[in-house]
Amino acid sequence: MMKRIAVCPGSFDPITNGHLDIVHRGLCIFDKVIIAIGHNPLKSDLFSTEEKLEMISASVIDNPRIGVDVFEGLLVDYILKVDACAILRGLRVISDFEMELQLALMNRRLCNKIETFFLMTDYNNLFVSSTIIKATAAAGGSVQGLVPDPVLEKLKEKFPRLNK
Prior knowledge:
Blueprint lengths: L4 E6 L6 H10 L5 E6 L11 H12 L5 E5 L4 H7 L4 E6 L2 H17 L4 E6 L9 H9 L10 H10 L6
Parallel strand pairs: 1-2, 1-4, 2-3, 4-5
Helix pairs in contact: 2-6
């Protein structure tokens, strides 16, 4: 029987518990979910690709159904390369839907064999974004409980005020 594999793409700078919630819930539908770290040229990253790979891998180490990888170029090319059938994305607010719909339609145009699945975020993560996490940590505010422990430790290295 063929495995149903989904790819959950993003820049994950850093990954949050909201991202991981979407991945874990995706495992109810898919046999495997690959967290695929891509580079968004429109964003300035706090963490290197290697740091992201390390933090995410440490955050999901206990689940063999979750993979972590890095990709460059078109997402649809990567999905075909890993023999996945779907893109898994999370939605928080209306503005997320508008952008995600455009991306889903373009990906569908590029490869009509790939479906995009959207999961609504859990209400506990509705306000959480990587941008909010970085801004709060930079100002010395607590982000504990909003990110996995490996991410919290890396944030403390980047923002010493967070240790106080």
